[in-house]
């Protein structure tokens, strides 16, 4: 019985190796799927205001800090009203005790929303940086006292021009300290 098991094992190994070689040679393993292929046409700016960039690298806890949002007005009308809405949901805290206590909280309890409004004039063809200043606390009061909220957050930043959503940035691993 042992000899036939060894022969069968060798045959299976040989078949698997042959299949792997054939598939890699003809592209049936890996390769570019249509969803992985890079677009061949260059990006064309929309004919309306749009978000040119969002920089959150300066956001910190415990001190006033900024996110810089750049809007380019590629439309025909002047932008006179801008709004930035940031929704941040705590995913994992740096302090394991806080993280453990957070498990019993609802998604709503883990989420904060900040809204900032501006009244800058952005003429057609102009670009403007909006400095969104956030004063995020380093610690919050809980049943057990003040605890640090340093950790990883899922954040969504939505940008509006003249009350119309013109862009959003989703940050799945925003780490705040």
What does this structure look like?
This protein is of the alpha+beta class and 177 residues long. The chain has two domains: 2-36; 49-176, Immunoglobulins (Immunoglobulin-like, Sandwich), CATH 2.60.40.10. 18% of the residues lie in helices and 43% in strands. It contains two helices and nine strands. The protein has helices at 2-26, 96-102; strands at residues 49-55, 65-73, 82-93, 111-118, 127-134, 139-142, 145-148, 151-161, 164-176. A four-stranded antiparallel sheet has the order 4-3-8-9. A three-stranded antiparallel sheet has the order 1-2-5, with no helix packed on it. Strand 8 and strand 9 form a beta hairpin. It is flat and about 65 Å long. It starts with a helix and ends with a strand.
Alpha carbon gap, first and last residue = 64 Å
Q: What's the number of structural domains?
A: 2
Strand elements, count: 9
Q: Detail the poorly predicted runs.
A: none
CATH fold annotation of the largest domain: Immunoglobulin-like
Q: Which structural category do the helix and sheet elements fall into?
A: alpha+beta
Question: Strands of the biggest beta sheet: in what spatial order?
Answer: 4-3-8-9
Q: Share of helix among residues?
A: 10-25%
Please tell me what the overall shape is. Answer: flat
Question: Could you give a quick summary of the protein structure above?
Answer:
This protein is α+β, with helices and mostly antiparallel strands. The protein has helices at residues 2-26, 96-102, and strands at residues 49-55, 65-73, 82-93, 111-118, 127-134, 139-142, 145-148, 151-161, 164-176. Strand 8 and strand 9 form a beta hairpin.
């Amino acid at each position: 019985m042992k000899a036939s098991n060894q022969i069968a094992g060798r045959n299976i190994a040989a078949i698997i190796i042959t299949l792997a070689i054939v598939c890699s040679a003809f592209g049936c393993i890996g390769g570019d799927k249509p969803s992985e292929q890079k677009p061949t046409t260059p990006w064309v700016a929309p004919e309306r205001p749009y978000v040119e960039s969002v920089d959150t690298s300066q956001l910190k806890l415990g001190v006033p800090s900024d996110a810089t949002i750049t809007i380019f007005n590629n439309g025909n009308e002047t932008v006179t009203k801008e709004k930035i809405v940031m929704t941040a949901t705590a995913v994992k805290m740096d302090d394991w005790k806080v993280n453990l206590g957070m498990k019993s909280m609802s998604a709503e309890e883990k989420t904060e929303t900040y809204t900032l409004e501006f009244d800058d004039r952005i003429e057609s063809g102009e670009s403007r940086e909006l400095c969104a200043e956030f004063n995020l606390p380093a610690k919050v009061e809980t049943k057990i006292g003040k605890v640090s909220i340093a950790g990883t957050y899922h954040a969504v930043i939505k940008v509006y021009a003249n009350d119309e959503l013109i862009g959003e940035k989703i940050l799945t691993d925003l780490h705040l300290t």
